[in-house]
TrEMBL record:
CDD domains: Cby_like (cd07429). Residues 66-121 form a coiled coil. This is Chibby family member 1, beta catenin antagonist. PANTHER family: LEUCINE-RICH PROTEIN (PTHR21533), PROTEIN CHIBBY HOMOLOG 1 (PTHR21533:SF20). One of its GO terms (biological process) is negative regulation of Wnt signaling pathway. It holds the Pfam family Chibby. GO terms for cellular component: nucleus.
Length: 126
């Protein structure tokens, strides 16, 4: 039995009359763009003094906005290519070493089995 009267019972909220009173959702896209000014254009941003714009799903540098040296870009591309080739070579070496390890492990297991069989065979003879 509650001390100060009835238990908590919230009031029921009245039903809403209409979801939206605006008729803008009835307009087609081009009319909405004209009415509301939804023509945004190409997204752009500045990072470290370089202007980038978003085109065809990728960020592309604006022409003429790159302030770095062209030789520096070529050097970085060449270094990147060298590192990718070195990475591929190292991955190949790791694969070869893993194959060698698995082959050696399989051979050692076979030799251990043969040794156990020979021990068992020699014990049976005695």
């Amino acid at each position: 039995m509650p001390l100060f009267g009835n238990t908590f019972s919230p009031k029921k909220t009245p039903p809403r009359k209409c979801a939206s009173l605006s008729n803008l959702h009835l307009l087609d896209r081009s009319t909405r763009e004209i009415e509301l000014g939804l023509e945004y254009g190409i997204p752009t941003m500045n990072l470290a003094g370089q202007s980038l714009k978003f085109e065809n799903g990728q960020w592309v540098a604006d022409s003429g906005s790159f302030t770095g040296d062209r030789r520096e870009m070529q050097r970085l591309r060449k270094r990147n290519q060298q590192l990718e080739e070195e990475n591929n070579l190292l991955r190949l070496k790791v694969d070869i070493l893993l194959d060698m390890l698995s082959e050696t492990t399989a051979e050692s297991h076979l030799m251990e089995k043969e040794l156990e069989e020979l021990k068992n065979h020699s014990r049976r003879r005695k």
